[in-house]
Design a protein that fits this description.
20% of the residues lie in helices and 26% in strands. The chain is α+β, with helices and mostly antiparallel strands. The chain has three domains: 290 residues, TIM Barrel (Alpha-Beta Barrel), CATH 3.20.20.80; 157 residues, no CATH class; 177 residues, Jelly Rolls. The strands form nine sheets. It has a nine-stranded mixed sheet, covered by helices on one side. It has an eight-stranded parallel barrel with strand order 3-4-5-6-7-8-9-10. A six-stranded antiparallel sheet has the order 27-30-38-32-33-35. Helix 7 links the parallel strand 6 and strand 7. Helix 3 runs parallel beside helix 4 and helix 9 packs parallel to helix 10. It is globular.
Length: 740
């Protein structure tokens, strides 16, 4: 053959291989997507433009996995619970950077283990809810954050991100890994990732930071694409362009069909809640690569975004609007907190999103999803606060969507529905022109048929600390309360005297609404017009959910003490200041997670103890005061024999009520029923000076113990112990104290 013919054949072959990814005929069952010649992602089934909006979620891997396991919970059940909430929020997209560090060895071989199994389980659960996935199989980094990395023996641990993008042996390890990863068959679906139509694309790796010759960058990408394609993969391949903007031209030269971007418009890890109007930060998403030949024929996805450290609930729809104006067809927030661990916001402190614990932000995300799907691609808007059916108000922390059939709001609004007679879906927090509700949790109301609606009510949520501070598992930042509240609902389709009945045992009034009003607790309910027969059951499907499904966390225990969160509130009684009696010990996370008291004194009657102010952490309702029955102290002693401790509460009237318990040599939950607390004498702390003044005080009041009166806790030990010179360490270590 002549050189010209060889060149022509090579070009033809290149176009043919590219066309495989573009063709709408390649994916099984024509339920996936393809990218056309203009770089637009379209449905294979009807060629219509596709768009997807959702979240990143990390429960199968790294700290997400470890933190759920440490609570003794099933990770599978945690995933099921969260995926239900994804569906409840109307999300249809999932992405996560797979921790290759946990499922590969140094040579790049795929390791079949619990993490891979859980990832498959998550994919299968998402599939049940019709949520689509883009897989990012390489993350490069370790599995530690916010703890130390474990030595997993993976190729990423061996080479690191920088070396992995330039060194030949690292290329080979990644090629081997990708080849095995994309041939892997999901044990729950029985499908490879190529065969599963709900997995629509792949992004090769997470946030690559390229260096060295640009030609090597193009080569790297093409080799990874080839490794994936050689497994039979025919779906679109994306590659990140925003992390290495100086290499953008080399990246665009590679054989991929789309490029990925991220957006953190308020920065990251402020260490506190960012307050004020941040709409200017999200007014526009600027892409600087439009002038690169070939870029405008590539699809665009946002693999991660968030208004980090912002608790207000108005940012997400504005970001969704700016994404659509910039031409994006996929956007996934980073990262949704697993409900099982969301009370502490430890995993990624700069991000905080969960339907139960941040209801307003979750409803704002729901509204953003509707905006992302509804707003035309590339259309520009004149204002940041009002566009199409959407309204934003930073002052009242409000996102709102108001159409003939849908009415959603993230906070109390004065708006009324566009047309209450044609309304089909409501979701919100607080009050509106159609609902008045006393609770603080989110609620959802959906029309199932004429005169029949389904109501879902989440429990109340309350912040007790700034969730964007540095957090640890013992430091609760938000609480859940299950309470019965009055709801007033004015829907023409129901009238004013409709029946309210719980689904699956939810505890509503059951006797019907009077004058549009009824009382309701967290759960799911049928609302049925008077005289209307309801033939629906708990198993009836409503979109992607069943009528009887309901997922919510249990009521929080009312946290009393943790070493990290409350160390500045501790007053110690140490009779011998020549000896150090109190110290904080660092745990797996590099902050104090354990308080150690050490009795090492020359005093004839040894005793050591602490007091801590807790009134501001309680804030109990009468219902909660009645429900809480037990003090739980998680502690251990360094002694060979159990150690007697005394624990009690000091009230605002000056009374002290205490009980004794025993601490063993292993960490355990020491439970003290509140009913066993008896009147006692409290320590006077700080210790009065001079030292001959009384150490104890016992009130003469006749008050009975009431949890709502509690101001301080007191814990002491030393009773019956030998003083200094004893071979025992005489220590007590405490990790947490709480009520349940």
């Amino acid at each position: 053959m002549t050189e010209k013919k060889i060149l022509l054949l090579a070009v033809a072959s290149l176009f043919a291989s590219s066309a495989v990814a573009q063709s709408p005929k390649t994916t099984v069952a024509k339920q996936g997507v393809y990218i056309d010649a203009q770089g637009i992602m379209r449905w294979e089934k009807d060629k219509k433009e596709a768009s997807f909006f959702g979240v990143n979620y990390t429960a199968p891997f790294a700290y997400g996995y470890r933190s759920i396991n440490r609570l003794g919970l099933s990770v599978e059940q945690a995933i099921k619970d969260d995926v239900y909430h994804f569906s409840r929020l109307g999300l249809d997209a999932f992405r996560v950077h797979v921790w290759d560090a946990e499922i590969s060895d140094a040579a790049g071989n795929l390791v079949s283990n619990e993490h891979l199994k859980l990832f498959d389980f998550l994919i299968a659960e998402l599939k049940k809810r019709n949520i689509k996935t883009i897989i990012t199989p390489i993350a490069f980094w370790g599995n530690g954050y916010p703890e130390k990395d474990e030595n997993t023996g993976s190729f990423s641990a061996k080479y690191g991100k920088k070396t992995a993008l330039v060194e030949e042996e690292a290329f080979k390890a990644q090629e081997r890994y990708l080849s095995q990863f994309f041939k892997h068959k999901n044990q729950y679906t029985g499908l490879t990732y190529e065969q599963d139509p709900d997995i629509i694309a792949t992004e090769i790796n997470n946030e690559p930071q390229h260096s060295g010759p640009k030609e090597r960058t193009t080569e790297y990408i093409n080799r990874m694409v080839k490794a994936i394609r050689n497994t039979g993969w025919t779906k679109p391949v994306f590659y990140n362009i925003s992390e290495s903007p100086k290499y953008a031209d080399a990246i665009v030269k590679a054989d991929v069909q789309g490029h990925s971007f991220q957006w953190y418009p308020t920065g990251l890890v402020a260490g506190h809640t960012q307050k004020g109007n941040y709409l200017p930060n999200v007014s526009k998403y600027t892409i600087p690569f439009d002038s690169i030949p070939g870029f405008n024929n590539r699809a665009r996805m946002v693999y991660e975004f968030d208004a980090a450290d912002v608790l207000a609930a108005y940012m997400y729809p504005a970001m969704a609007r700016s994404f659509r104006t910039a031409g994006f067809q996929w956007a996934t927030q980073f990262a949704y907190d697993p409900m099982a661990t969301a009370s502490t916001n430890v995993e990624y402190q700069t991000h905080y999103l969960n339907l139960a614990y941040t209801p307003a932000k979750a409803i704002s995300l729901l509204i953003a999803s509707r905006a992302f799907h509804q707003l035309p691609r590339l259309k520009k808007y004149a204002t940041d606060t009002s566009f199409d059916a959407f309204r934003l108000d930073p002052e009242t922390s409000l996102s709102e969507m108001n159409t003939a059939e849908e009415f959603y709001y993230s906070n109390t609004t004065t708006s009324t529905p566009v047309d209450s007679t044609s309304l089909r879906h409501i979701a919100g927090v607080g009050n509106s022109g159609v609902i008045q509700y006393e609770g603080t949790g989110a609620y959802f109301i959906d029309r199932v048929a004429e005169g029949i609606w389904r109501l879902e009510v989440m429990p109340d949520a309350a912040f007790i600390r700034d969730p964007f501070e540095r957090n640890v598992p013992e430091k609760e930042v938000a609480r859940i309360r299950w309470q019965n509240h009055l709801m007033k609902l004015n829907l023409p389709d129901l009238g004013q005297d409709f029946q309210v009945s719980g689904i699956n045992g939810s505890a509503g009034s059951g006797s019907g609404a009077a004058g549009y009003q009824f009382r309701v607790s967290p759960g799911v309910y049928w609302l049925v017009k008077k005289g209307k027969q309801n033939t629906f059951t708990a198993q009836s499907r409503i979109g992607q959910i069943k009528a009887g499904e309901f997922v919510a966390p249990k009521a929080s225990g009312i946290h009393l003490f943790s070493p990290f969160a409350d160390k500045d509130k501790v007053i110690v009684y140490n009779p011998d200041w020549n000896n150090k009696a109190l110290e904080y010990v660092h745990g797996e996370i590099p902050v104090p997670t354990l308080l150690r008291l050490k009795l090492d004194t020359t005093e004839a009657s040894p005793l050591i103890g602490i007091q801590s102010f807790v009134e501001d952490q309680l804030g109990l309702s009468p219902e909660e005061s009645t429900a809480l029955k037990t003090i739980v102290i998680r502690a251990r002693t360094g002694n060979t024999t159990p150690l007697k401790i005394k624990f009690g509460f000091i009230t605002k009237q000056g009374d002290f009520f205490s009980a004794e318990a025993m601490a063993g040599g292993e960490f355990s939950d020491i439970e003290i029923p509140l009913s066993t607390l008896q009147k006692d004498a409290q320590l006077l702390l700080p210790r009065p000076y001079p030292g001959f003044l009384p150490l104890y005080y016992r009130s003469e009041n006749d008050h009975a113990f009431n949890l709502q009166d509690v101001q301080k806790l007191e814990l002491t030990f030393g009773y019956g112990l030998k003083n200094k010179g004893n071979t025992e360490p005489n220590t007590l270590e405490i990790t947490s104290i709480y009520l349940k």
